[in-house]
Batch of 4 targets.
Target 1
Amino acid sequence: MGEKRKPDDWNAKSQKKKKFKVSSGFLDPGTSGIYATCSRRHERQAAQELQLLFEEKLQQMYGDMKDGEGESGDNEEEEELSIEDQIKRELREIKGEDSSKDSSSGGMKRKDPLAFIDLNCECVTFCKTRKPIVPEEFVLDIMKDLADPKNMVKRTRYVQKLTPITYSCNAKMEQLIKLANLVIGPHFHDPSKVKTGYKFAVEVTRRNFNTIERMDIINQVVKLVNKEGSEFNHTVNLKDYDKLILVECFKSNIGMCVVDGDYKTKYRKYNVQQIYESKFQKNDGEDVK
């Protein structure tokens, strides 16, 4: 009797393992996307909520991208992507990988602009994005919709905070420097776009990460913003900033983006739950009056 039950028990355990094994839980260098924190043990439900929200916003911002549509801007993007491609090639050379392979693809189909990745990390999920999506612009547009006082429909139940990632790299200081120069350049060093004297801050979040110390990351990024010979005279201000540099460290990956000051003041650090609560409390107060 014991021999007959043993295979059944083994099959049941095997099925359970297969059921919950979705991905390796790692992000490749060069990845762009959006981190999302969520309620504990509701990572999949949060991803499902975001899938609907993101696809709706994708359609609204970029139109239909299926069956070859939405690729008219590919040629226009080639020049913008050239710097990014150089960074990716350098990253692959450092890792000793074949430069003919795109390490950022991660198995994501050419036509698929959104792909959710199970990070095997409690309370966190990640959505990998590809062009034409610009993660910081994409998330900001979503937050504008959610913060609109006229929009009282609660779209998510489990999602808490969204964090866009413009690009990412492996957890090495020399690659962090290349990544920072790529990400912060347009926001701090482009004469055609940048004003002098920005107040800025750096915020670092680390999950399952101990490769580089938090203050080493901050000091290096600040040094690159105020690089020697810079004419812009940007200054660090931790409370009242015009620009905030977000650095997300997860396992062997470092992601980065730059957001404006309203990230904190108007959009509550892109915390979806807090935005909902603020709107509903304000609405309840007006009803009482």
Note: The beta strands are 32-38, 114-117, 124-129, 159-165, 167-170, 199-207, 235-236, 243-250, 253-260.
Target 2
Amino acid sequence: MTQAQRIALGSVVVGAVVLVVKLAAWFFTGSVAILSDALESIVNVATAIAALVAVRVAARPPDASHPYGHHKAEFFSAVLEGVMIVIAALLILHEAWGRFWEPAAITQPWLGSAIVVAASVINGAWALVLIRKGKALKSPALSADGKHLQTDVVTSIGVIIGIAAAVATGWYWLDPLMAALVALNILWSGWHVIASSLSGLMDESVSEDELADLRNLISDHAEGAVEAHDLRTRVAGRATFVDFHLVVPGDMSVTAAHEICDRIEVALKKHLEECIVTIHVEPEDHAKHTGIVVL
């Protein structure tokens, strides 16, 4: 099992624990806001399972049907997570709307709030782990899961504030109102997750700063060539695909040109841990004089 898979499995366990804790808080209080928080945790568990499956699929090596690998499986998981977040938000809004017109008193509010705080601490700590590891492992599924958990922490803080205000004023309609605000926050989070994942499915390029680094690496390690042009990149999960045209002197041997390509490829793969490089070699009369000048 890879490190990404172990972390994804950890998310399933953490999500299940937090769900049980929040359901206990709802049992003691009867708060619709806490119920909405628990419903989001159900989504957390479901999306953690989806992320685990996606990470396992993405780790598979290329095969005859998928010669470029299975890296994009993680983006599908992230999109699914965004959709499920939106569905959870709509369910919460439905519940909040009915309770707003028939507000009920909250029982044992401080015990329930303490339980929610404990669940939030667990979620917050694990969210930091997921975001840090997701960035290090270039895993969209883990990063999306971490950002979702951060939203869950903000949600829980809002729930606690709403309960405190409702108990202090006796205005128990504040409880479903806070649940509705929680749902709107979740909707925003779901849209953000979907939008960021769709960019990956659309073969988004690396950042401008990263592109500049790649240009410099090609220039520094292409001694013997004339120039490089038509540099293109795309990111698919942990993998970065790089392809460009390398212009060499017309009388250069195939062996010498191949040695230059190998040197560039080694440098790029050292810079980007999972990098797939394609280089098209051209003779000098194909130079465009608009690409990467070789130092």
Note: The two ends are 43 Å apart (CA to CA).
Target 3
Amino acid sequence: MKVAAIQMVSGTRLDDNLAQARALLEQAREAGAELAVLPEYFCFMGRHDADKLRIAEPPGAGPIQAFLSRAAADFGLWVVGGTLPLATSDPAHAANATLVFGPDGQPVARYDKIHLFRYDNGRERYDEAAVLAAGDTPTAFTLTDAQGQAWRVGLSVCYDLRFPELYRLLGADLLLVPAAFTHTTGQAHWEVLLRARAIENQAYVLASAQGGSHENGRQTWGQSMVIDPWGVVLAQRASGAGVVVADIAMSRLQQVRQQLPALQHRRF
């Protein structure tokens, strides 16, 4: 199966971001991808954290969700909508939610980011919990590709990457990591964490990132990539908007798991 990690440099205008996302999804489909994953905050990166509350949609309705459904159906793609803000019972907090739509445009899965990023090095400060509500449910779904092969696909978002216990619970063949890693933390840890999750779970990893200088002054790391179960980077994009495409094969995953049956040797 051919998969695509979509990299963006999202800005403050929702319509512009959706237009760019659609163009990149079309590019992924033209390259032969069956699954395309948008980055975290693909639809909007505001000037202030609370700005995302202004565009938070009720679950099941709204222009961002309609966009994802329509794009999936138009292109016949499995589309993973990076993250978008969904309204919660608390108007001061939104869920940072990943939504999955099948090639028929129907919703398949929802995952709310569990681990909320906080960082302060004296120059940069982030605290997602100020406006986001943490999720509490590890989520995976089954994707059946064009050849009839069923894949267990595990969902995660950005900062989740630092918590390996989540990925163990998912028990997936393919792990998705839409992200908006800061340049500082990404330069230090992004690739090594992604490759570690692939190696320890003997699974493919598809990581779609924000990558560049944003209107709000934020600098994101980029380096969207696809990694195989042995930890080999199959394809990668350094920075800027674009599409990273790679082929993944269940036979390769099974080969790695048979040759080194580490998952069978687990004691805890």
Note: The longest strand covers residues 94-101.
Target 4
Amino acid sequence: MLNSLDIAKEPSQTRVVVAMSGGVDSSVVAAMMQREGYDVIGITLQLYDHGAAVHRKGACCAGQDIHDARRVAEMLGIPHYVLDYESRFREAVIDNFADSYLAGETPIPCVECNRSIKFRDLLATAQELGADVLATGHYVASRALPDGGRALYRALDPSRDQSYFLYATTPEQLAMLRFPLAEQEKSETRALARELGLVVAEKADSQDICFVPNGNYADVIAKLKPHAAEPGDIVHLDGRVLGRHEGIIHYTVGQRRGLGIAVGEPLFVVALDADRGRVIVGPREALATRKIILRDVNWLGEVPLSRIGEAGIEICARVRSTRAPGPAILRMKDGAAEVELLVAEDGVSPGQACVFYESDDPRARVLGGGTIATRVGAPRLDLIGAEPARRIGAV
């Protein structure tokens, strides 16, 4: 007889470590597990300090969030531990985030945090504590497969689905992970928090990357890497130099606003030339992408990735967390994963994720994904402006 976590034990004999961030979602998970009679332990990670990371005073992860998690654990009567992962987080997530931006990419630190910190280091700690499972407040589903493994699926609430950020979860990690909020909407989670009398029931959701609380990525990177904000040229695809910028870290592919140039036509950032410190702009049609090459692919499908070959398989691919999955073909060519988007996408940027789904169904299975390395057909940066620079207004 399996319990609600698919473990063949009585709940009282099943140890559940809950990753408690201090927010409403993870707090409700801890309360749900405790109410069902599981042996619950709460763990909160101290990942960063705003003072050290962005040189500003005020709230930090070691402050209010940890305090809130501790208050919830005390109310529930469960053990609660705070682990200092600050140095690990700095090396694995923040430094990689800054380096990726300096390379002209648009990284997703939440993916790396899940891959390197929560589902690797924290999972190992949970195992050391004798846990049967590690439960989190993510909105994503994990279901048992006939062969005894587990698969990842989109959550019930499409507005909260976090499968895009969890594609890098491995089969081995999935075996121990549980996501109790998968089958409920956010409004239900809030209602349950109120019903249980949790002190965080009305706490606002975090909208920004945790170590970038004001949404200003460039400011954080400039403080971590003082040489990062080096000025350079804003160059049109046709080679014209249209103006100057204060550092490529201030721009992302697909950006239109805030370019600081006026040439009588709508222009978008189509590429970031990190080697030459240039921002390349052009018309919207230059953003259209149909093929991308991926790196660091994580595969969760049943057919081995090595057997897919150049013929490829049909999937649905998602290249932005805010966009719906679209029809695509996944191929393996010369050891690299290539995704052909059957409907062109704008604003595809290196450093972002391309996540694979079995279909476009709202509850579709996640087949994995990878980091976008290059856009096939993207403009050759070394050829742009190869002739002597032509500046607007020059004779």
Note: The first strand starts at residue 15 and ends at 19.
